[in-house]
UniProtKB/TrEMBL annotation:
Cofactor: Mn(2+); Mg(2+)
Gene3D superfamilies: Nucleoside Triphosphate Pyrophosphohydrolase (3.90.79.10)
Database matches in InterPro entries: NUDIX_hydrolase-like_dom_sf, NUDIX_hydrolase_dom, NUDT19
Protein name as annotated: NUDIX hydrolase
Organism of provenance: Kibdelosporangium philippinense
PROSITE patterns in the record: NUDIX (PS51462)
Superkingdom of the organism of origin: Bacteria
Keyword Protein transport in record: no
This protein's UniProt keywords: Hydrolase, Magnesium, Manganese, Metal-binding
Transmembrane parts of this sequence: none
Boundaries of every Nudix hydrolase domain copy: 19-228
GO molecular function: hydrolase activity
Length: 281
């Protein structure tokens, strides 16, 4: 895989930027042709991952930590154990995952009770817009509508951290979730100019053909999910989550991300080891 030069800065931040906590959700559905994932193409020119096809997600809002959220499913302590993080952060990540999925795709992982989920999100269209504009918190939205956050509809999948070379870094927890019956993902967000459902293998083929842009966390996740015959199989997967931090190496004028396990990973320049003249110029 080759990275666009625009995605790696000419000068590396020193010291590296502290990653911001974020959550992303891979929405899945079954079709006669196999499992499909929902992808958004971020608007070209955005400060981070512009033009890339990604899953719905975004940064944690400080209000996502509210402890009075109506909650169904594994408690924050369980999520904290899965992602090896403090309980308050785990609660925030789950809330951010559900909130961002609703904001960016219109899919709402919540219901009137602990064992139900809304089938028509149309009545909440106005609230969705207000959430995007941060007019109120997700906890306030749930309280006002009498909805319960369905943490049991999510499964932990991975934890990716932006390379140290990047000026914008995120410590992102990846979740997967099945598209609730009756709901549809619309991708009506100002951050994306295209939305689509794709079989993982097809999305990767489009990337290889240069028709889609995929970052390492996206193509790796698609590759893993492409091995699952059904959404139920994916949701039943028992995974051990560990942080994955790619590095960037230069081969002439080509920039290539490498992952732990790649023979080139240990010889890749760490941020603090980079030579002063080791820039993109």
């Amino acid at each position: 895989m080759v990275l666009p030069e625009s995605m790696v800065p000419d000068v590396f931040p020193d010291p590296p930027v502290t990653p911001k906590d974020a959550a992303t959700v891979v929405l899945l559905r079954d079709t006669s042709a196999g499992i499909e994932a929902f992808l958004l193409r971020r608007v070209v020119g955005m400060a981070f991952a512009g033009g890339m096809s990604v899953f719905p997600g975004g940064g944690v809002d400080r209000r996502d930590a509210a402890v009075d959220i109506a909650w169904a499913g594994p408690p924050a302590s369980w999520w904290a154990a899965q992602f090896a993080c403090p309980e308050p952060l785990a609660r925030s990540l789950v809330c951010a995952a559900v909130r961002e999925t609703f904001e960016e795709s219109g899919v709402l992982l919540a219901g009137p009770s602990a064992d139900s989920v809304v089938s028509d999100t149309g009545p909440y269209a106005g609230a969705r817009k207000s959430l995007v504009e941060r007019e109120f918190s997700f906890a306030e939205f749930l309280a006002d509508t009498g909805l319960v956050l369905r943490a049991d509809l999510l499964r932990p999948w991975a934890n990716w951290v932006t390379p140290a070379e990047e000026p914008r870094r995120y410590d992102t927890k990846f979740f997967i979730a099945a598209l609730p019956e009756g709901q549809r993902a619309d991708g009506s967000t100002s951050e994306a100019d295209h939305a689509e459902w794709r079989r993982p293998a097809d999305a990767i083929d489009l990337w290889k053909a240069g028709q889609r842009g995929l970052l390492p966390p996206t193509w790796m996740t698609l590759t893993e999910l492409g091995e699952k015959p059904t959404v139920a199989d994916a949701m039943a997967t028992d995974r051990t989550i560990s942080k994955i931090i790619p590095k960037v190496i230069r081969e002439g004028r080509i920039l290539r991300p490498v992952l732990p396990g790649d023979p080139a990973y240990d010889r890749a320049f760490g941020h603090l080891d980079a030579r002063p003249d080791d820039t993109l110029g």
